[in-house]
Amino acid sequence: xxxxxxxxxxxxxxxxxxxxxxxxxxxxxxxxxxxxxxxxxxxxxxxxxxxxxxxxxxxxxxxxxxxxxxxxxxxxxxxxxxxxxxxxxxxxxxxxxxxxxxxxxxxxxxxxxxxxxxxxxxxxxxxxxxxxxxxxxxxxxxxxxxxxxxxxxxxxxxxxxxxxxxxxxxxxxxxxxxxxxxxxxxxxxxxxxxxxxxxxxxxxxxxxxxxxxxxxxx
Length: 218
Known about the structure:
Layout: H1 2-10, E1 23-26, E2 42-45, H2 52-65, E3 70-75, E4 82-87, H3 100-119, H4 123-126, H5 130-136, H6 143-150, H7 153-156, H8 162-166, H9 173-189, E5 192-194, E6 201-203
Antiparallel strand pairs: 1-2, 2-3, 3-4, 5-6
Helix pairs in contact: 1-3, 3-5, 5-6, 6-9
C-alpha cells in the first residue's frame, strides 16, 4: 500500500477546466452517487477555488436544484474515470489532503527497518550494535523480529546499548524483561552496575558513586 501511495505522489494530474494541479486526497468512505464506494482509497481532486467549474457551479446548482453547492473536478488513480463531483462548501476535501511529507517519512522509516532487519544476520560477525537497537526501539516492527534482536544483545556485549534501551518505554512487558536480562548480563561481563540514585554506570565493587557522590549499599 505504501509503495502504491508513493507512486501516486509522484504522478502529475491536471484539471481540464483550470489547468491547475490536482491534489491527492483520501477518498470519502462512500460514493456520493450510488453508495458502492470509489474503488480507490485515494482521489485526485482540483482544490483550486478559482477553477471555472467550481466558480460557476454555485449558480448552476442553485438554479437547477435550489441547493447550495458547487462542483470539484476529480479523477480516479489508475483509471480514465473522472467526475464533476458535487460539494456543499469550499472546505470540502481540504481536510482530506494526503500529507506527503508524513508519507515520505514513513517510507524512510520503512526502508530503515528493512535495512536493520537484513543486517541482523551479520551484526555479530561485524560487531554492529546499530541494527539491533533500530529493531528493538521501533515499536512498529513485529515482535518476533524484535525478540530475534534482543537475543543478540548479550553476545554483542556492548555497554553502549544500555542508555538507549533504558530510556525506551517498551509496550511489551515480556520483551522489556528480556532486554533487562540482557543488560544485566552485559554489565556483569564488564564488571559494572548502575547507580540506583543517578543511573550512571559505575564499577561493580564501588561503594561511592563517582557521578553523584552518593554512598552505595553493597
